[in-house]
Specification:
heterodimer; A: alpha+beta; 2 domains; 4-stranded mixed β-sheet; 3 helices; B: mainly alpha; about 85% helix
Amino acid sequence: MDKIKRGMTNFFLSLAAGVIIGALAGAAGFNALVSYKVDEYHQRIKHLEAVVEDKEARLKKLEESIKEFSKSKGSYMLTNIEVILIYEGDDLEKTTLEKNIKAKLDHLLGREVKSIDIETVEQVIDNRIFKSDGKEFKLKVDKILLDEVLKIWVNVDINAK
Amino acid sequence: MTVPFFSNVIYSFLIALGVIVGASLFAGVAALINNHPPLKTMLDFSDSIKIWAVAVALGGTFSSFQILEQGLLKGEIRSIGKQAIYVLVALLGANSGCNIIRLIQRCGQLWIK
């Protein structure tokens, strides 16, 4: 009995030691394999952060000058487009859809609000089908709010045919 | 336990190399957990702990200084020479460890291409 107990203890100790050493060696080895890629991603993130910061500063200045210009003219200009998706999907799909919808409406930015035809805006998006990653997304415009910022609420149906 | 000179040289070289490689690899794991760039951390660490790797390989600097002191005061030039060789070999091991870590970067570049 004593021998069996000692044997079991030895077995579990060896198993634990093997698991710990294996995990440490595996972690270190795998880290050495992927470290170059991870470093590259870090570099890219830093570069993109710098680019975004620079673009944001420029955008802020441009927006201020547009506001001053439109004030002096007595008219409003469209400065931003906001897309609100009524959809319970994952964030990656949402971002892709938002990007696609914004791309369709980008030409309106900087135009006078009075000159924008809201029905045309609706027609551009309504009943449009986007295909992404083997899925089909049918868009249906829920409501539109037009001010200096164009807000558009869109219902999304997946796999609609 | 008396260890022959040549065995001591091998010990010094490999201990210094192991300290650098092991410490750098695990510093990389720590960097990954802390969301820092792992390869950069590994390279920085391998450079900064080089001198400590030499100290570890020699079994702490105290005994080395003792031998050097004896060598200088009692005129034992041979022991001074031996210690100098141990230090040099340990430095060589530490440098080799750094180069192994740099090799990861080179291999990564090739892998990405």
